[in-house]
Amino acid sequence: MISYCITDPSYYSDSTEKFSLYIEEIFQSHKVDMISFRDKRGINLEPFIKIFLDICKKYNTPALINSHIDLALKYNFFGVHLTSSQFNKISYAHNKKLFVIVSTHSLEEAKLAQKYGASLITFSPIFHSPNKGKPKGLEALKEVVDNLDIGCIALGGIMSQKEIDSCQKAGSYGFASIRFFANKV
Fold it and tell me: For residue range 37-92, what is the model confidence (pLDDT) as tens digits?
């Protein structure tokens, strides 16, 4: 089961120094198989991207960026994590040789992401997660897993090994989280 970390600016604000410490702490405290730089604030992302990629290279970890195909190509990211409103960009990103993860929230979206060429999908929210709507639950996760030929990564409300184990029992290829990785083990 892979572990997929997603960053969040609430843990570092607009400080590149805090960002660097935040990313280093994640790698020092957790097993991270993939990591995505996610920052929706619209600020100048490039100083953060450079720090992010340097640290990912140091830990030999595939680095993705959330939604920004242009920046993924410009900075030679391993891949891109597209939102559920970017289905029309899956094929383009895939054709540009990017590893493509797509956020999905239903079986129909998951099947569509697979059809368009996604490498993996996230399915969320599995458990309660602030401002993310009603949890889908483990049965819905299992249904998605059972109906795809690509890996499904459980996302949403995963805060402990208990939730990770439950997702693994449901057949999830991996788990993704923001808050799990922000906490020190």
Answer: 999 887 789 999 999 999 999 999 999 999 999 999 999 999 999 999 999 999 99
Domain boundaries, the chain: 2-182
Q: Which of 10-14, 72-76, 108-112, 128-132 comes out lowest in average pLDDT?
A: 128-132
Which residue bears the tokens 């992302």? 45
Residue 17 zone, left/alpha/beta (φ > 0; ψ -120 to 50; rest): alpha
Q: How far apart are alpha carbons 92 and 71 in whole angstroms?
A: 14
Q: Are 72 and 38 in contact (CB under 8 A)?
A: no
CB 117 within 8 A of CB 136: no
User: Domain 2-182: which topology?
Assistant: TIM Barrel (3.20.20)
Residue listed under structure tokens 């299992």? 142
pTM: 0.95
Rounded Cα gap, residues 79 and 100, in angstroms: 6
Inter-CA distances, 90 with 110, 112, 183, Å? 12, 10, 32
Angle between the N-to-C axes of helices 161-169 and 137-146, in degrees from 0 to 180, rounded to the nearest 10:
40
